[in-house]
Amino acid sequence: MSHSQHLITLTTDFGHKDGYVATLKGVILSIASDVRMIDISHNIAPHDIMEAAFVLKRAAPFFPSGTIHLVVVDPEVGDNRRPIGLKFKDQIFVGPDNGLLSLVLSREAVSQIVQLTNKTFWRDRVSSRPFNARDVLAPAAAHLSNGVALSNMGEQTQELHPMHWALPIADQQGVQGWIVHIDRFGNCITNIHRSIIEPIQGDRVFKCYVGNTVLNETGCDYHEAEAGDPVLMFNSDDLLEVAINRGSAATLLDISKGAPVNIVFGEEKTLSFQNSFFDSDQPTQK
């Protein structure tokens, strides 16, 4: 057994007010007493499958091979959706089959999908109204960390509940995308990847219409902007991001998740970091 098979991450929308997270950890430890657990996040917005998938998708690649990711964000809790486990890029993901894991995969190939139907690996005392995270998913993650093969956990399947990320729309005039995530600092992350913009942009500058303002292309990082000034940049994932140095772009620029982002290309590229970040000659909405 590899050392990382003793590692379970947890991603939920349970928060820390109640005992739900502690309950999951207690169940896991009662089965796998030497397991290491790492909390990716328990502050996912309630029932927000896309936020959970975005956060987990960004974090999972930095964990070692064999890591088990337990994710529980389920707006249809109590409904008849399947608890599943799957192998993806030498890691195992355990959660409800509600589209979340399809978003994590982003249409990439998965080597194995199993419905967690083998009650041998459920919690011993399941109530008449089971709490799947406690009674099925957490025990499954624990047994997997003990070396139980995923294939023994239930029935093989080839299907996942489908859900897909919205893709940007691009042409020679510009790119239309959306805000897909706002982090705790108020940084607004779009679904527009550098690889979409740069081949079309060429030597042209661009303006970004978002929220209540228009931003010029700046090409700078947080530390290069004055405190309170906005920054339009590609982040560490090469996604276009709107931020404010030492401030919340979401609050100050009136940007919400799902807000449209419109990139419009100009004629020539003349960057100057001395210019205003805001374009006062343009309307504030597009």
> For this structure, what is the CATH class of the largest domain?
Alpha Beta
Summing up helix and strand content along with how strands pair, one would put the structural category as alpha+beta
Q: So what's the overall shape?
A: elongated
Model regions low in confidence, pLDDT < 50 over at least 5 residues: 271-286
Taken together, the total number of domains comes to 2
State the fourth-level CATH superfamily of the largest domain: S-adenosyl-l-methionine hydroxide adenosyltransferase, N-terminal
Q: Say what the CATH topology of the largest domain is.
A: Rossmann fold
- Count the strands? 15
Question: Strand content of the residues, in percent?
Answer: 25-35%
- The share of residues in helices is 10-25%
- Output the radius of gyration: 22 Å
Distance between the termini: 56 Å
Residue-averaged pLDDT: 88
Account of the 3D structure:
The chain folds into two domains: 155 residues, Rossmann fold, CATH 3.40.50; 97 residues, Bacterial fluorinating enzyme like (Elongation Factor Tu (Ef-tu), domain 3), CATH 2.40.30. Helices cover 19% and strands 28% of the residues. The protein starts with 6 loop residues before the first strand and ends in a 21-residue tail after the last strand. It is elongated. The chain is built from six helices and 15 strands. The C terminus is likely disordered. The relative contact order is 0.12. The protein has 286 residues and is of the alpha+beta class. The strands form two sheets. Strands 8, 9, 10, 11, 12, 13, 14 and 15 form an eight-stranded antiparallel sheet that branches. The protein has a seven-stranded mixed sheet with strand order 2-1-3-5-4-6-7. A hairpin with a 5-residue loop joins β9 and β10.
